[in-house]
């Protein structure tokens, strides 16, 4: 069964960063060429780090992400669960073809698929920091991308990507929803901006922290010099 039922398998997607790193590194591409005599280990060693990638991106910080995400509050899906610009954008993105190859299904299925992670990915793409925020339609794989890059934790920070499991599970495989952290309220709750929440809209929400499976921390270019 492929995945287009909940934000847990928010459509069919994976961590765009893996491909972005490969594209950014000619050495990594050459390492996969059998003519070069180098293998995957050499490719991984040659690939630039997220920090190196971030240094070449627009000087975007957490507040830029929060501002853009919050500006989308009120956008909602149609009666079929689609019709948002976030779904439309994802369907035209190169990432959609990659996640289709990974997860199966058909491109058109994204049109009415749960779009919480498409919203997160859209924000990163609009600000030019997709390579250091990741991009996906499947929340579980997006969270794994952060974990694989050493950018996963339990502390709410403004601009962090927050992954939810409604049961309170801390297992990445149990993640069902995603959004952005606006602030830690200091009372056991966090303020967020999320897509595909409530009645299928972008909304600002207050969530109990116990529902958080974990946080992904993008490498913000604006913070590198601080």
Q: How would you sum up this structure, described in words?
A:
The chain is α+β, with helices and mostly antiparallel strands and 226 residues long. The protein has a single domain, classed as endopeptidase fold (from Nostoc punctiforme) (Alpha-Beta Complex). The protein has ten helices and six strands. Strand 4 and strand 5 (201-208) form a beta hairpin. It is globular, with a radius of gyration of 17 Å.
- Strand line-up across the major sheet: 1-6-2-3-4-5
Main sheet properties = 6 strands, antiparallel
CATH superfamily: endopeptidase domain like (from Nostoc punctiforme)
At the third CATH level, what is the topology name?
endopeptidase fold (from Nostoc punctiforme)
Note the run of SSEs as H and E: HHHHHHHHHHEEEEEE
The radius of gyration computed from the alpha-carbon positions, rounded to a whole number of angstroms, is 17 Å
Signal peptide: 1-30
InterPro entries: CHAP_dom (IPR007921), Papain-like_cys_pep_sf (IPR038765)
Protein name: Peptidase C51 domain-containing protein
Organism: Microbispora amethystogenes
Please tag this protein with its features:
disordered N terminus; 6 strands; endopeptidase fold (from Nostoc punctiforme); six-stranded antiparallel sheet; 226 residues; 10 helices; 35% helix; alpha+beta
């Amino acid at each position: 069964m492929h995945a287009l039922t909940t934000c847990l398998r928010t459509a069919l997607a994976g961590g765009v960063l893996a491909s972005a790193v490969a594209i950014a590194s000619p050495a990594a591409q050459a390492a996969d060429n059998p003519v070069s005599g180098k293998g995957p280990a050499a490719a991984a060693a040659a690939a630039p780090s997220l920090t190196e990638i971030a240094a070449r991106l627009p000087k975007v910080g957490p507040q830029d992400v929060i501002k853009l995400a919050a500006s989308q509050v009120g956008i909602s899906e149609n009666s079929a669960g689609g019709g948002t610009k976030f779904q439309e954008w994802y369907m035209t993105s190169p990432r959609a073809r990659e996640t289709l190859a990974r997860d199966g299904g058909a491109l058109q299925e994204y049109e009415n698929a749960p779009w919480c992670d498409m919203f997160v990915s859209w924000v990163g793409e609009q600000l030019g920091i997709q390579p250091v925020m990741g991009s996906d339609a499947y929340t579980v794989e997006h969270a794994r991308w952060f974990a694989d890059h050493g950018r996963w934790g339990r502390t709410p920070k403004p601009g962090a990507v927050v992954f939810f499991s409604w049961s309170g599970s801390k297992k990445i495989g149990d993640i069902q929803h995603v959004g952005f952290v606006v602030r830690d309220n200091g009372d056991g709750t966090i303020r967020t901006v999320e897509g595909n929440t409530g009645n299928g809209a972008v909304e600002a929400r207050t969530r109990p922290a116990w529902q958080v499976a974990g946080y992904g921390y993008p490498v913000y270019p604006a913070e590198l010099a601080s």
